[in-house]
Q: What sequence folds into this?
């Protein structure tokens, strides 16, 4: 018994030629060549009765590739995976693993080609971890001859998933993350060229989600398996998968690298939701932020400010239903990217340079067109000057000011003690009898929509 | 291999217990026989089949009678310890056949019960869940009430009734080549109710043979046991058990759920058919010779699962042997009182409280 990891392709050849596995003769099925995709979904359709669940899906996975299947609940992900591992027979089309049609194989032969990590990994009966992993050897187990390679394969799988130390523990005593690794070990013990995972992270906490997918990605890399996983967390899918396939209503909308596939347009079609897709600041992979349903703040609002606070203000206002314009902003500013993603109109200007006349004119035009202006601190005086004589104005405080701003919004948004900067921005006095709107209403990025509403609802000021 | 060692160890221990229970049981009765005498008489009764001849039996149906040939085995006996002839006759002709039959029936029922609980992943499943016992009851009570007679008419009718009703339940629950276990369970309940009505009607019509029919329904057939019953039942139970044992691993994988089992290489529907058919035949054979006996197939697997764990490669043989010991013990209780009661009453009377105890104290509900 060698401890070398057998190539999954060896297993493929072995099962392709194995009569006991109930396959057709090897000459008929043809041996795979290295150019073929290992896992090939060819024009597959499935339905339950009259209800079409998956229609004409084609997809392929190469050895060493980890493809994520994403899509809303009920998109047909689990059904498609069922056609791949042979539990369901496709109505039209075919699933081939290494050139063999899975639907033509006995479940014993199919389970030597495709291993499955199911969605629900709870085991009602208290088998030990080693027992569960050993069940992965079932397709190799002769009823009277046993499986001479079982012990070695189980050891390897336990080692690979770092579950050796649990091997004699009852599986019921493990945490969800540990149990997930045990079920992954069971799939590894099957020594298949292809691996199918149905929501492997669905019931795990953040840490275990990342660790599980990391492990899958490593296994795929190291052992040249072809892996297809239904993953509902788009950010995680983007982070760990080589390619993503977006499934919506049984149709494959897009397949490709995560950054190409995860676009606002695809997400809108697949999930029927507005979403912002921005690079994750830590991993650099696409991160998806679904946005709430647009509200009824049907006004134009111009936002002056930069950085994350401004980005949040733009997103809150967009979500509230406002038509947002932003600027001037340096082109690479997070607020600029976020605003563009949300469909807001952005005026850009080089960073660390004086604003030229053309930009200033453009901004003034937008400020004039807006029903309200939001200033996001900290703000350069030159920018603040652009809104002189404009109202209503909402000033968004960040950091230490935020708490008091929240309190003020809570207290009807009135600014009873207008301070210096407000006066300067609005050019108004501090007479406490005058409506509070004369000073900038205050808000935080989260409450800015409320602040804008209140400012807009105030009676016309003395100017009118 | 650890599993084999565990299975062999437990089975050997329980077999020892079974032998001890059997020997003690053979000392109990209206005539008290000492344990050494029992042991000697029992060894004298150990025979190996050495020849096959043809005998004859009389078959009577609706007043007409006919003589039919039946196969007969001849035996060579290995021991001949000196035992007084009264004791020898009591032990060898009356008590041992009954004990051997009880052991065989307990063995078959517990094995089938273990498989059914695993198959249905349901703690309330027992061998009669798919209508086997009800079918047997219809066959047996009909034979008694309508006064059919002949060699093994009762047993044959019960066996045929059991197998037919299990098959009907299977057909009703199968659609498009798939047999969902939930449908099977519900179809089983419905057919049991229907057959229960038939049995009730037949009992109303039974007249003078009512007592005999009631005795059958309570598992009272063991008292008539002769060696021929044992010789017919043992091979059926042994073959069924052998097949079920060979499927121990498949049963384990089926416990993970049918979808998982399929992706692990089990031909789910075919395996279910084999398990259903074989455990139904085992149950039918047991019920045919012993009458309807409840709780053995329900309680014994539960107890053994608590002791040895869920692995069917260990659970199945240990449950079967424990079931044999359990039924020998309960049958001894059934016949040791002043008036003999059918063993079904004793198994239920002992089994139900014990089951309730398990339910309250152990994790039977987590099955």
A:
């Amino acid at each position: 018994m060698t401890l070398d990891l057998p190539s999954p392709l060896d297993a493929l050849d072995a099962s392709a030629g194995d009569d006991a596995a109930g396959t057709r003769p090897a000459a008929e099925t043809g041996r795979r060549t290295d150019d073929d995709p290992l896992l090939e979904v060819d024009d597959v359709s499935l339905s339950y009765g009259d209800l079409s669940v998956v229609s004409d899906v084609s997809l392929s996975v190469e050895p060493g590739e980890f493809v994520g299947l994403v899509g809303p609940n009920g998109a047909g992900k689990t059904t498609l995976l069922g056609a791949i591992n042979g539990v369901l027979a496709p109505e039209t089309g075919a699933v081939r693993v290494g050139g063999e049609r899975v639907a033509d194989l006995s479940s014993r032969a199919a389970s030597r080609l495709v291993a499955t990590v199911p969605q629900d990994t709870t085991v009602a009966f208290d088998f030990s971890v080693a027992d569960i992993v050993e069940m992965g050897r079932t397709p190799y187990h002769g009823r009277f001859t046993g499986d001479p390679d079982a012990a070695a394969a189980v050891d390897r799988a336990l080692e690979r998933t770092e579950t050796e130390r649990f091997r004699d523990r009852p599986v019921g005593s493990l945490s969800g993350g540990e149990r997930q690794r045990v079920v992954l070990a069971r799939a590894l013990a099957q020594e298949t060229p292809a691996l199918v995972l149905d929501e492997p992270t669905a019931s795990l906490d953040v840490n275990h989600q990342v660790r599980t997918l990391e492990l899958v990605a490593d296994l795929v890399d190291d052992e040249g398996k072809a892996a297809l996983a239904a993953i509902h967390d788009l950010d995680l899918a983007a982070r760990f998968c080589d390619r993503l396939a977006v499934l919506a209503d049984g149709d494959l909308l897009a397949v490709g690298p995560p950054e190409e596939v995860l676009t606002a347009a695809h997400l809108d079609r697949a999930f029927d939701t507005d979403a912002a897709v921005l690079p994750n600041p830590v991993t650099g992979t696409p991160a998806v932020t679904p946005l709430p349903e647009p509200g009824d703040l049907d006004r134009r609002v111009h936002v002056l400010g930069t950085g994350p606070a401004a980005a949040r203000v733009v997103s809150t206002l967009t979500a509230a239903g406002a038509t947002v314009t932003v600027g001037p902003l340096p082109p690479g500013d997070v607020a600029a990217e976020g605003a563009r993603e949300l469909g807001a109109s952005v005026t850009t200007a080089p960073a660390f340079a004086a604003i030229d006349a053309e930009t200033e004119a453009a901004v003034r035009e937008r400020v004039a067109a807006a029903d309200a202006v939001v200033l996001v601190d900290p703000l350069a005086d030159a920018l603040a000057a652009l809104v002189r004589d404009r109202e209503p104005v909402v000033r968004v405080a960040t950091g230490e000011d935020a708490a008091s701003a929240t309190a003020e919004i809570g207290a009807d948004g009135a600014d009873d003690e207008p301070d210096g900067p407000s006066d300067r921005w609005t050019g108004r006095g501090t007479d406490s009898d005058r409506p509070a709107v004369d000073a900038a209403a205050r808000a935080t990025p989260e409450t800015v929509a409320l602040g804008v509403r209140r400012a807009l609802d105030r009676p016309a000021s003395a100017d009118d | 291999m650890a599993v084999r060692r565990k299975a062999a160890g437990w089975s050997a221990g329980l077999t020892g217990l079974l032998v001890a229970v059997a020997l003690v049981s053979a000392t109990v009765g209206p005539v008290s026989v000492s344990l050494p005498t029992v042991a000697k008489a029992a060894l004298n009764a150990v025979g190996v089949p050495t020849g096959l001849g043809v005998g004859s039996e009389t078959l009577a149906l609706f007043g007409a009678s006919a003589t039919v040939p039946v196969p007969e085995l001849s035996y060579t006996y290995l021991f001949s310890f000196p035992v007084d002839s009264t004791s020898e006759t009591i032990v060898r002709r009356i008590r041992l056949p009954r004990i051997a039959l009880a052991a065989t029936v307990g063995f078959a029922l517990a094995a089938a019960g273990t498989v059914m609980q695993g198959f249905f992943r349901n703690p309330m499943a027992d061998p009669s869940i798919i209508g086997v016992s009800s079918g047997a009851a219809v066959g047996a009570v009909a034979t008694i009430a309508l006064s059919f007679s002949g060699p093994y008419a009762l047993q044959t009718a019960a066996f045929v009734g059991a197998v037919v009703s299990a098959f009907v339940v299977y057909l009703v629950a199968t659609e498009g080549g798939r047999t969902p276990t939930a449908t099977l369970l519900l179809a089983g309940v419905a057919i049991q109710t229907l057959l229960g009505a038939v049995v009730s009607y037949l009992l109303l019509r039974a007249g003078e043979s009512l007592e005999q029919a009631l005795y059958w329904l309570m598992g009272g057939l063991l008292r008539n046991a002769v060696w021929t019953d044992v010789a017919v039942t043992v091979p059926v139970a042994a073959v069924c058990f052998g097949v079920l044992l060979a499927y121990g691993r498949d049963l384990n994988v089926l416990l993970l759920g049918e979808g998982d089992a399929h992706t692990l290489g089990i031909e789910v529907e075919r395996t279910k058919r084999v398990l259903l058919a074989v455990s139904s035949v085992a149950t039918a054979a047991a019920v045919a010779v012993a009458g309807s006996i409840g709780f053995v197939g329900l309680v014994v697997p539960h107890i053994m699962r608590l002791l040895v764990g869920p692995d069917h490669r260990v659970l199945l043989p240990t449950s079967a042997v424990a079931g044999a010991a359990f039924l020998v013990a309960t049958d001894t209780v059934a016949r040791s009182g002043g008036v003999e009661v059918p063993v079904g009453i004793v198994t239920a009377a002992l089994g139900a409280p014990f089951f309730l105890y398990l339910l309250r104290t152990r994790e039977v509900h987590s099955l």
Summary: The two ends of chain B are 26 Å apart (CA to CA).
